[in-house]
Amino acid sequence: MTALLETRGLGRAFGALNAVTDVSLAVPAGELRAVIGPNGAGKTTLFHLISGLLPATSGRVLFRGEDVTRLGAPARCRSGISRTFQITSIFPELTTIENVRIAVQLKRGGNFRVVGGRALLEATEARARQSLAFLGLGERAAEPAGTLPHGDQRLLEIAMALAQEPELLLLDEPTQGLSPEDTAATVGVIRQIARDRRQTIILVEHDMDVVFDLADRISVLHFGQLIAEGTPDEIRANTEVQKAYLGGLP
């Protein structure tokens, strides 16, 4: 299958520290790819490099076959790459619907002036409400985002990313800090997004039950390097992965 996203020899150094080294991976359209590894393995740095939040010090990022390595995060967002963050990133003082509207406006170029008339404003509002409804947050549209339970705040961040209508969705630790009940609900939402929208997703996650439940394929990072890729069954059976990370997971 043709890759929607490719990284070729991708690397990022911070002085003498190589956080990501020579990572080459290919993610086809419609796949749910998980990226796993111990703390400090370079997973979030890899997300920063793919989304454009950090510039690469080596290698390339290709999206839909086009080299986007030199594009910053706003341009990559407009090209079709959206993401969430390990630490919930919302505007707590704004309402839920306002948070999502801002995400839609950022995708349109970050112009917050009333340009385009009522039709544009109505389209932005409709897109925001559609995204909230899909995530089960429609009834909370008028509530300040900071008053939402933690699980709903994590869902709101996903709603903000989805409202940008991405071709590639990057989810960084979406179940971090969630109760077992909220984790199960979030897993259900991610599965629904992948199935109903045929959404290409790359997921960074420490909860192995979540990873093995959701992922089509798994990439494993260790000390910034890609040490294994495969199906969940192949990764479970990989002795190098067992030694580096999974610790004898059956």
Features:
single chain; 250 residues; alpha/beta; six-stranded mixed beta sheet; four-stranded antiparallel beta sheet; 10 strands
Fold blueprint:
Layout: E1 3-14, E2 17-28, E3 32-36, H1 43-51, E4 58-63, E5 66-67, H2 73-79, E6 81-83, H3 96-107, H4 117-134, H5 150-163, E7 168-172, H6 180-196, E8 200-204, H7 208-214, E9 217-222, E10 225-230, H8 232-237, H9 239-246
Parallel strand pairs: 3-8, 3-9, 6-7, 7-8
Antiparallel strand pairs: 1-2, 1-4, 4-5, 9-10
Helix pairs in contact: 3-4, 3-5, 4-5
Describe this structure in words.
The protein is α/β, with parallel strands linked by helices and 250 residues long. It contains nine helices and ten strands. It has helices at residues 43-51, 73-79, 96-107, 117-134, 150-163, 180-196, 208-214, 232-237, 239-246, and strands at residues 3-14, 17-28, 32-36, 58-63, 66-67, 81-83, 168-172, 200-204, 217-222, 225-230. The strands form two sheets. The chain has a six-stranded mixed beta sheet with strand order 6-7-8-3-9-10, sandwiched between helices. Helix 4 (117-134) crosses helix 5 (150-163). It starts with a strand and ends with a helix.
